[in-house]
């Protein structure tokens, strides 16, 4: 692949050459020609690494370990790459003549929707095998996919691909093709910035998440909506009959994502309201029981005090027999009016306090 001459005149950036090959090396002269390491591959690998770091940081918040993250990464990364390549090969079989052409992903040709499908299937299987909450795991991984897309589109830039039709827009990209400089939509840039904005918004409002699958649905809705329009500007779209495949998929992702999100939001709202009503009912019942117990306790205290007063009054009177009768009547009143389960405790309390009063009267430290 040869160098590409590009420019961004509307942004004040003149012509410069872009080499898709980052560097070449031939260890110990073992190969006839040097091994080429392309920017596309480096950028894709960098995106994978940053995506894994992001997933690890999110995983810690839900109690997952580094081993869990590694298990997820070891499955979804290769499955995502295979899915992205197969999707592209199936949609554009005429350009692949040999098996080498099929596996040469360093030359470009990865379809993000295929990557999401392949990686999603692997993620579902791993989550089930490890008995993790599937919706929670998909929410954790979805923004990480956006990191890969943000960076991955710059791999398209170094390959001089994934650009749009000719335009005179202020951010137009000059591209030297067919012996002349043409100015086109930098669709790789549009999509990279669109995903960056989506990534920022999703993470900014993460704490307002109401249910599992919400972040994943926000991702496919956001990306689908943007891709639906950006794809219409591109010159290298994959077609299914007269239809641009990525545009159709983007449309359905947006419609289905938003519809399911609204449904789950309403469902979670109803569940929350039902919980609130149930809590209010339980709280009301507990409050009533507490109030009833408080009233019973106050009545017990009043009767105890009344019994003690009667006892003291009778002891100070002239008629000792009548005092004894009044004392016994006071005790019986306390016992009859208290709840059955508390009768013995209250009676013992009355007897103890009466006994203490007798001791104070007979001792030297009491009030006369």
Low-confidence blocks of residues: 364-368
Number of helices: 10
| Strand order in the largest sheet | 2-1-5-6
Helix content: 55-70%
Mean pLDDT: 84
Largest sheet: 4 strands, antiparallel
- SSE-based structural type: alpha+beta
Report the end-to-end length measured between terminal Cα atoms. 114 Å
Beta-strand proportion: 5-15%
Number of distinct beta strands:
8
Overall geometry: elongated
Order of helices and strands: EEEEHHHHHEEHHEEHHH
Determine Rg (CA atoms, Å).
Answer: 39 Å
Provide a quick synopsis of the model.
The protein has ten helices and eight strands. It has 368 residues and is α+β, with helices and mostly antiparallel strands.
Kindly describe this structure.
The chain is elongated. Strand 5 and strand 6 form a beta hairpin. With about 375 residues, it is of the alpha+beta class. Helices cover about 65% and strands about 10% of the residues. The N and C termini lie far apart (about 115 Å).
Keywords summarizing the entry:
alpha+beta; single chain; four-stranded antiparallel beta sheet
SSE inventory with pairings:
Blueprint lengths: L3 E5 L4 E6 L2 E5 L9 E4 H23 L4 H26 L7 H5 L8 H18 L4 H26 L13 E5 L2 E5 L2 H18 L9 H17 L8 E2 L2 E2 H72 L3 H18 L5 H20 L6
Antiparallel strand pairs: 1-2, 1-5, 3-4, 5-6, 7-8
Helix pairs in contact: 1-2, 1-5, 2-4, 4-5, 5-6, 5-7, 6-7, 7-8, 8-9, 8-10, 9-10
